[in-house]
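Reagents: none. Just compute today. YfiR family protein.
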Amino acid sequence: MISQVQAQPQLNLPATTLTILSYVRWNTPNPISLCILNNSQLSNQFIQVNQQLKSAYQIQAVSLSELNKIMCNAVFFSTYTPREEQNIINNLKDAPLTFSSNNTECKLGSAFCLYQNKTRTSFKVNLASLSQSQARVDPRVLLLAKSTEP
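Predicted 3D structure written out:
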């Protein structure tokens, strides 16, 4: 099933994110909620890949004004700068695991920063942001991040 998803480049971003999420231990009961912030088109891609992978994540598109009103175990940013991401994260009442597709330096903002590396999706990890999250990520994910670097 994963090979079908990887064959479609536009779906690699959601597939990579959902794979990272599979390495997370949560302190909350299922289902785990992934909120896609201000990007309904990307949310639809996540829903499609979530179904293809038969994952049990609850994917929802949310606006910034809704973010503190609903439960999000993880938040995906795609339309904000790293500084804006950090400001939003600092103002969240909970400490979700955060992802970004618009933060290639990964020094500020989200814990996981995904980017296109030639023909595949790669990611970096911001350890400072990761440590602020309530999620417990398997350390092997850190090795995966290092192995995807050029």
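The CA atoms of residues 111 and 129 lie 5 Å apart.
Action item: order primers for follow-up constructs.
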